């Protein structure tokens, strides 16, 4: 997004703020957006802040936005060490290593065949190796050891990012490149695009993010020293959010925001007669919509926190507006939406009442597979050799029969029932952590019968290709007539029925069979 004009908003001994702007007109071929990009430097602060205000007027034409990010390309011969967490930091291959390597199934994945550093030979480089959940993507960047300088991207808030706290996105990667992603299709697909209709007004502030530079002579031999310093600076930036210094009136300071508090309680009648606290639950505010709509929401702001051991939560610095309160609890099936809208105005202190999540259940648990945590981490992933064996858990992908030809695969779940009461109804609870151009069909005891249930074609999150263990979440409650089940051995056939290529897949989160109510 290029600015066509610039203006010095403020210049004194303590702060400089510069605006680069562009006003859209109907004879322009650019995206129909007014753009106001800001850069800010503060006294005694080693780095600079950047934020953008995007606006479209209601009389402007319809259009879509697929993504938005701020990106920096660093000096190739200087920055060779990358860090994004305590466990994920290393000397990296170079861009030249990628250019001389072999492209694999897609252009981002490259086999290093003749790298500058011979230790990297045979390694695969892919920028998606370094993807990260929004909630964890607060600081990452690069270190030069000669001179010893760190370049860090610090994102102090996720309120302006799309898709919620566990949407994954890029961080830093070979280039050397570092970026902060505000919106993208990664691990979500087209469903998360910003789609604007004619007559729709929209404005949003992206950022500020902080580009932090640090130096330490000892980092020449130990780059992690600069990483540790960058982490400390990140915590300081988070504590100072929302910032008091941005001069755009569209960035709201803390005194113009509100607070929401409450206590999330769980009720699963099979496990407990009474309600219990929703411990470590994710609780958030997002634009009004259906249960789970927050994971597709991209136009507005989102505000998330995690509950305490008693289920209490506090969501601070909420921008005025009308929201739904959403929640989910790790190791608990399904997700929650509060019955009432929550309206925030400047200075509001709102207590959400009657926040009771009645978890989805129709009968007692007969068996369960997986952990209900919106992730496929515990499931078996087939080896790339495609030599199929019997495994308890698996991610459902396609089987390659010849070059560029794939067929659907079926997973069988075998279980025994001691009795099936006449007229009884059973329930299969099915949660998926990802889907990509897939259709999951469910059959009981007859693999050739018409499916008892089908998801239809779902998903474009492409999480498998991007080395993810989750994309968008899908949840289904499937009713089973007792007449479809047998006394003794039963088989449930789960078939991924589409065959569009190597990355057509579903990833299971959790499956549970429930007995009669």
UniProtKB/TrEMBL annotation:
Location in or out of the cell: Secreted
GO cellular component: extracellular region
Similarity comment: Belongs to the polysaccharide lyase 4 family.
GO annotation, biological process: carbohydrate metabolic process
Entry keyword annotation includes Transit peptide: no
Entry EC no(s): 4.2.2.23
Domain Rhamnogalacturonan lyase: 280-349, 365-513
Keyword terms, alphabetized: Lyase, Secreted, Signal
Taxonomic placement: Eukaryota, Viridiplantae, Streptophyta, Embryophyta, Tracheophyta
Main localization of the protein described in the UniProt heading: secreted
InterPro entries for the chain: Carb-bd-like_fold (IPR013784), Gal_mutarotase_sf_dom (IPR011013), Galactose-bd-like_sf (IPR008979), GH-type_carb-bd (IPR014718), Polysacch_Lyase_4 (IPR051850), RG-lyase_II (IPR029413), RG-lyase_III (IPR029411), Rhamnogal_lyase (IPR010325)
Originating species: Sesamum alatum
Full protein name: rhamnogalacturonan endolyase
PANTHER family: RHAMNOGALACTURONAN ENDOLYASE, RHAMNOGALACTURONATE LYASE FAMILY PROTEIN
């Amino acid at each position: 997004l290029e600015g066509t004009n610039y203006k010095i908003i403020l210049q004194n001994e303590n702060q400089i703020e510069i605006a680069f702007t562009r006003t859209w007109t109907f004879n322009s071929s650019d995206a129909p957006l007014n753009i106001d990009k800001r850069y800010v430097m503060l006294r005694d602060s080693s780095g600079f802040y950047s934020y953008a205000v995007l606006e479209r007027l209601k009389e402007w034409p319809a259009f879509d936005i697929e993504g938005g990010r701020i990106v920096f390309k660093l000096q190739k011969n200087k920055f060779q060490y990358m860090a994004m967490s305590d466990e994920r930091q290393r000397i990296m291959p170079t861009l030249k290593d990628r250019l001389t390597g072999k492209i694999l199934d897609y252009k981002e994945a490259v086999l290093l065949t003749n790298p500058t550093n011979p230790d990297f030979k045979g390694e695969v480089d892919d920028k998606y190796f370094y993807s990260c959940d929004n909630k964890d993507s607060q600081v990452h960047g690069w270190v030069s050891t000669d001179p010893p300088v760190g370049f860090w991207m610090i994102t102090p808030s996720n309120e302006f990012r799309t898709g919620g706290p566990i949407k994954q996105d890029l961080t830093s990667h070979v280039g050397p490149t570092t970026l902060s992603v505000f919106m993208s299709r990664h691990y979500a697909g087209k469903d998360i695009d910003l789609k604007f209709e004619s007559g729709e007004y929209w404005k949003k502030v992206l950022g500020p993010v902080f580009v932090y530079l640090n130096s330490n002579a000892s980092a020449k031999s130990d780059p992690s020293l600069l990483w540790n310093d960058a982490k400390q600076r990140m915590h300081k930036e988070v504590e100072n959010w929302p910032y008091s210094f941005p001069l755009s009136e569209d960035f709201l300071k803390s005194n113009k925001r509100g607070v929401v508090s409450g206590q999330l309680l769980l009720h699963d009648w099979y496990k407990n007669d009474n309600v219990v606290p929703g411990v470590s639950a994710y609780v958030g505010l997002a634009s009004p919509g259906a249960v789970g709509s927050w994971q597709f929401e991209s136009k507005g702001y989102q505000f998330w926190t995690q509950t305490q051991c008693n289920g209490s939560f506090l969501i601070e610095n909420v921008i005025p507006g009308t929201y739904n309160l959403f929640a989910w609890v790790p190791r608990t099936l399904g997700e929650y939406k509060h019955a009432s809208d929550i309206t925030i105005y400047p200075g509001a202190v709102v207590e959400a009442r009657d926040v009771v999540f009645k978890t989805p259940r129709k009968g007692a648990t007969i068996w369960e597979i997986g952990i209900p945590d919106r992730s496929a981490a515990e499931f078996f992933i087939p080896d790339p050799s495609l030599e199929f064996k019997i495994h308890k858990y698996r991610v459902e992908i396609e089987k390659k029969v010849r070059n560029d030809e794939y067929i659907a695969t079926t997973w069988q779940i075998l279980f025994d029932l001691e009795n099936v009461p006449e007229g009884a109804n059973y329930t299969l609870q099915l949660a998926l952590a990802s889907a990509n151009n897939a259709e999951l069909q469910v059959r009981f005891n007859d693999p050739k019968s018409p499916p008892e249930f089908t998801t239809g074609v779902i998903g474009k999150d492409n999480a498998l290709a991007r080395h993810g263990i989750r994309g968008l979440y899908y949840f289904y409650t499937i009713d089973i007539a007792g007449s479809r089940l047998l006394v003794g051995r039963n088989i449930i056939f789960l078939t991924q029925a589409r065959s569009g290529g190597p990355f057509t897949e579903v990833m299971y989160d959790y499956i549970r069979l429930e007995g009669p109510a």
